[in-house]
Amino acid sequence: MTEPFVQVRIVGRFAEMDTFIVSRIHTRDHLGDYGSQAWQDVKDETQEMWDDLFPGRRLHIGTWMHHYIGKDFDDYEIQRQRPDGTRTRAVRRRPRS
User: Fold this and answer.
1) Which residues contact 65 (CB under 8 A, 6 or more apart)?
2) What's the CA gap between 7 and 48, in Å, rounded?
3) How distant, in Å, are the alpha carbons of 2, 14, 53, 59 from that of 68?
C-alpha cells in the first residue's frame, strides 16, 4: 500500500434487502471519530435526503447483516453505541448457499 492511506465512508440507507441508496461519500479524515459532530451532521443530512426523495417510505430495518444482504457475507449484529460510548458487536459465520 502506498501513502497516503485514505479510508472512505459510504453513507446511505437500505430501501429493501439488497438495495442500498448512497447519500454521501466522505473520507475518514473529514468525519473524524464515530459520534463526532461531523458524523451527526452526515446522519442528519442522510435522513433529510431520504425524506425528500422517498416521502412517506419507511427505511428497511434489521439487526443482523442477513436482514440487509441476501447472501455471501459474514453475518454480524449491527453495532449500536451504548450510553457509555462503547459499541456492541457480535459475529457469526453465515453458511454460504
Assistant:
1) 73, 74, 75, 76, 78, 94
2) 25
3) 33, 7, 20, 11
Q: Which amino acid is at 80?
A: R
Predicted TM-score (pTM) of this structure:
0.66
pLDDT digit string, tens, across residues 42-83: 999 999 999 999 999 988 888 887 888 887 776 666 666 666
Contact 22, 12 (CB under 8 A): yes
- Residue recorded with cell 442528519: 44
What is the C-alpha separation between 15 and 68, in angstroms, rounded?
9
